[in-house]
Records
---
Amino acid sequence: MSDLILHHYPNSPFAEKIRLVCGLKNLAWSSCDVSPIMPKPELQALTGGYRRVPVLQMGADVYCDTLLICEMLESLNPAPSLYPQGLTGLARTLAQWADGTLFPTAMAYNFSPAGGAEFARLNPDLDLRAFGADRAAMRGGAPRMLPGDATAAYKSYLRRIATMLESSNFVLGDKVSVADFACYHPLWFTRRLPGVADILATNSAILPWMDRVAALGHGKRNGVELSRAESLKIALEATPDMASTSASFQDEHGIPLGTEVVIPPQINNS
Ligand SMILES: N[C@@H](CCC(=O)N[C@@H](CS)C(=O)NCC(=O)O)C(=O)O
């Protein structure tokens, strides 16, 4: 098996989801830092154009999107499972809600004026004007949710999560599942913004659950950062593992394996 390389940046909630899955599965991995804004020439050379984060690399095999990365990490190290027996469908469906609905709502709240100011204060090296322009271009000009709407919806979603935690340690019971990681990562970003994190304390079950998820850690992260050029060299010099790709490939779209595709970033306000 080739070594795991995670392409990510520290502030990325979706990357935090995968760092924690590496913690659950006690996996060893190397880190390769990605710019949070375009241009990302090395990442896009590696992925064939995909710009989002995180991306998992194993030799010449590159996995985009945390849904796929979770499946891959599960197959590498099946226990503890992300998909507890009897709850697999529910866990996947709740994770899809969290990534598709909770996440953009939380990010609209996180980047409301107060949150944006906190983010700027905590990240003095980030060019916020360039960051804002990058995300606006990625959204294709579509507006973010209004702060008031985002706050109201976020409160209601937090209450839903708290209800799931009333009598169990994790959202679907006493076993952690992929749904916990998906519900956790948008809240993790909120918690890092002191001025706006109070919203998490409005339900008493949320913060203790967040502590339980955070306690899973990040696995065995190699202390030496891999450069972008080194990661590309590793991919160029490795042979793709076609056997495992073909075994797990599901042609839901009628696009045969091996077809060249282009994946534009979908709009999710991140
Ligand atoms: N569906 C994707 C979403 C990933 C995503 O939106 N990541 C954000 C960072 S948390 C991103 O890439 N934003 C744009 C960028 O960094 O260029 C996944 O599950 O991996």
Note: Residues 12-14, 36, 51-53, 65-67, 99, 268, 270 surround glutathione (CB under 6 Å).
---
Amino acid sequence: MSQGIVKISVDVLYEFMIAVFTRTGLSKPDAKACADVLIKSDLRGIESHGVGRLRMYYERLNAGLIEPHSSLTIVRESPTTAVIDGNHSMGMVVATQSMQMAIDKAKQFGMGAVAVRNSTHFGIDGYYPLMAVEQNMIGMSFTNARPCVSPTHGTLPTLGTNPISFGAPTDEECPFLYDGATSITQRGKIEVLARAEKPVPVGWVVDSQNEPMIDADDILQEILQDQAALLPLGGSSELLGGHKGYCLSTIVEILSSALQSGAFLFQLSGFDPEGNPSRFRVGHFFMAMNIENFLSVDEFKKNIGDLLRTLRATRNAPGQTRIYTAGEKEFEMEKIVKQEGVPVNKNLRKDILFLQHELGLDEFIFHD
Ligand SMILES: NC(=O)c1ccc[n+]([C@@H]2O[C@H](COP(=O)([O-])OP(=O)(O)OC[C@H]3O[C@@H](n4cnc5c(N)ncnc54)[C@H](O)[C@@H]3O)[C@@H](O)[C@H]2O)c1
């Protein structure tokens, strides 16, 4: 295969992820919940948040930054709302249980909203609205993250890449799913470029003097020293991050911290004031809306299907052959990856072999 890329079967990779998590102390159901989110990312072609992050979770679990035995505390609850403390458990476990709670509330009362504090990184944001979509609901998910994005007119990495995700069922095979960071790019894409030994495009990241940075390894190091920042969505030609991305990111930060008295901005750096590694205390916010409480599911699905088809049927820009709606590219990619396997380059392969060796997972064979 070209550029040292090999493809690993989805089933093999999924079982490997479960094995890594169980050997690191997670229960089988929790390991499965985590692997479900990671493999969904690989399936959807989101290289940044799948197997590429497995070593990161392993190292954080090993360092005691994440609790392997998940426990969630209900801090406050009403028929339609809840505040959850994740007690530093794996983010995917906290998030799937919290989203499920929002869905259950919506099933009973039409709406469910769950605010979470003291969680950890939960992978792709879009996984959780899809849980609601499967139940014929609209789902929304938000999370804050380690500071690496500057506010507009600033250069200090202050906000997380704070994604927003919104999913809804349609009368087509592919649900509508918007799932994206509120920064021009997200940290994971810089990691992917670093592994591929490729430069970062100008306009994604600036240094403390607002000059563009393009070396991926440098950027990942300098962010930790407050000397590099990703730019918020909608940046201008002067390389200043856009105010709309900055404000959307602030909204995500509010939803992920204020309702649950959770950590925000610099409190999520992963370091204590003495510079020692500390827990991340990530916050999330989940919402589910039961469509049946508004109109029949079929009517809604047709309404949204008509809307999306109208969008896709509009005039293409010169040189373009197709207009997409959110979630389509990833939905189509999922079919390809399922058949062909997950592409893994030489540096990612090194990480996989490192985990295999560390944990004695000799039963897995990764062919070249
Ligand atoms: N957990 C975290 O802390 C965290 C932080 C940031 C990002 N992430 C995850 O990283 C992943 C990637 O984020 P991203 O910002 O790079 O996403 P992206 O820019 O690749 O895609 C964002 C959205 O745009 C849609 N899209 C793409 N091209 C389109 C087109 N031509 N027309 C219409 N829609 C189109 C996609 O379907 C997707 O929903 C997401 O899954 C996100 O949740 C996680």
Note: The chain has a mean pLDDT of 96.
---
Amino acid sequence: MIGNFNDTWNLIGKMTPARIANASKVFSSYHYSRFTGKAAHGGMPISIAIEPTTSCNLRCPECPSGLRSFTRPTGMLQADLFKKTIDELANTLAYLTFYFQGEPYLHPKFLDLVQYASSRKIYTATSTNAHYLSEQMARRTIESGLDRIIISIDGTSQETYEAYRVGGKLDKVLKVRVLLFD
Ligand code: SF4
């Protein structure tokens, strides 16, 4: 409960006058379209999602990355493209979802890119299978300014965990809780 309050307060703290004005444009144009039936679009994105990489170390059976079944190439986000996008949007952008399919920590510059967005006071969130969160990476994660981390734990024993997280090691994931939160 207190964690949720702090998280919300943290997000609110990133809302500059330009971001609030932009969000108002987006919401008002949405409601205008809804009530009049006429398409209208105002403002710039409030929130964007960027995938750091399509590659993954695990083989989860419902995931295109785990199944190695992408129709697009497996690869890494280009740092220059990311920075250019952030530079163009930072004035009005409040929230960056920095994951989709693929394990973000496999990107060699992932935390540098988090730091780049964070330095522009954009709220950053990611999700990880936590197999690369060594003590050093855990420290770097905290120092990067990342605001939210989702850690996938899908079982309470190695057997139940690996039923979905194929190739994963539950003990590695549980160690991360100690590194990040204790
Ligand atoms: S850990 Fe995540 S990205 Fe990797 S295969 Fe599983 S669901 Fe997909």
Note: Helices lie at 2-13, 17-36, 79-89, 110-119, 135-144, 158-164, 170-181.
---
Amino acid sequence: MTVDQLDPPPPPSLRDLRPPPRFAGVAFETYAPQDPTQVAARDRLQEFVLGRAWRHEEATRRAAEPTARQTRTLRWPWRRQAPQPGAGLYLDGGFGVGKTHLLAAAYAAADTPAKRYLSFQELVYLIGVMGMARAQAEFATSDLLCVDEFELDDPGNTLIVKTFLAACFAAGTAVVTTSNTPPAAQGQGRFNASDFKREIQSLAASFEVVPVNGADFRQRLKQGSWLSEAELAARQDREGSPAPRLIVAWDELLELLRSMHPTRFGGVLAQVGSVYLHGVRPLASQNDALRFVHFVDKLYDRQVVLRASGEGPLADVFDASYREGAYAKKHHRCASRLAELLGEEVGERRPSVTL
Ligand SMILES: Nc1ncnc2c1ncn2[C@@H]1O[C@H](COP(=O)(O)OP(=O)(O)O)[C@@H](O)[C@H]1O
Ligand SMILES: [Mg+2]
């Protein structure tokens, strides 16, 4: 299929906030720690989710108990259990150390239906479209909120997220989040973070920081690279990759990514099984680079097959002028994910459907 055959993607919605396909089946048991901090992080997170009395469990237990009136015994009001206050855990570390794996494992292990998993960017977007009051009311019913990739990119987000999270904690919600940046260093290099020191410090204070160190786990996996145009064409003809297969030229992809909010990229990729991307070249602007990073994040999360033609090392898709700047970690993470995606073999041959 081609770009003009794609349907307009829907905006993110409150329904279906769960881990993406790549992380849908992960568990604490499938996490193989490679570093002492990873053992500690796994144990702390496991204790955090298994040790909590979820409000929904409390409600079920209370409903099952006979009421004081039925049993004709007197119940002292102070014996009623106070609701557990909210709590926050912040997994902080480099990319590829398994933070998202652990986050999705926590989601899976939490024995409550009132749990939600989404990316930080999706969260900020949802608060924006719903308005703060409605977002707070909707999310206040959650026992557990899992937020992947906490990144304060602009001052507006800082205030919004601080207010929103304070309300979550007050409502008794447990929040687990992952980030490549320690909480107190959020915003640095991206905006005048010192003007928001108070807000950032208050955010940081509401989380227990759990460091996750170690080498990029993806280095252990087969590393892919750009293909030549001839190799890409041959793969496109012969490879039994999942359908529908989107065939797209580099400039066409960049146009597509510029035409919508990044929170819609997931909705685009929900429509395809594989992407054949022709003629990757270095990205001249930081804006295009951030859009491409986000697109690769979604390809990765959704386990879409990617094949691409280009030249040189993968990291060189980001121009030297900004590569090591404020978003350096995002660029490195993207190169790591690209290497994993491009190295992934296609499973058994599946019939390809032409739309
Ligand atoms: N210790 C581990 N045991 C098993 N799989 C791991 C481990 N660490 C990472 N992985 C796998 O490596 C990939 C990258 O991990 P991920 O959780 O995305 O890292 P991060 O979020 O820290 O960048 C995922 O496929 C994940 O399941
Ligand atoms: Mg991650």
Note: The chain has two domains: 31-211, 221-343.
